[in-house]
Amino acid sequence: MAFNYKAPAELFPSRRRNGRGPDFGRGPINYKRFDSAAEAIKFAMEVLPSEFLLGTYLEVEDKRLDGNAIRQLYESEDYPLKRI
To answer: Is residue 32 a contact partner of residue 11, using CB atoms and an 8 Å limit?
Structure first.
């Protein structure tokens, strides 16, 4: 199945036990909108702390993808952006 990496996406990071998302010094990130799924996947894999991937989900074109699916898309040969 082909995945549209160019479609707009919404990322919902996992919540900590205290009910807050990851904190990057500017306050917690609970939700973030991206112009492309590729950018959202990159953020999830390269910016979010790895422990937050479990419980994080991505919504793209009315589909909800969990942390495992996000990792698979990032590791795919079809992933269009440069990885760190």
So the answer is: yes
Domain ranges for the chain, please list them: 41-84
Distance separating alpha carbons of residues 77 and 62, to the nearest angstrom: 23
- pTM of the predicted model, to two decimals? 0.84
Tell me the helix, strand and coil percentages in the chain, rounded to 5.
Answer: 25, 20, 55
Per-residue pLDDT reduced to its tens digit, 4-58: 999 999 999 886 545 455 555 455 567 899 999 999 999 999 998 888 899 999 9
Residues 74 and 70: their CA atoms lie apart, in Å, by: 6
Q: Cα separations (Å) of 58 from 20, 24, 83?
A: 18, 19, 19
Strand ranges (DSSP E) for 9-62?
Answer: 9-12, 32-34, 57-60
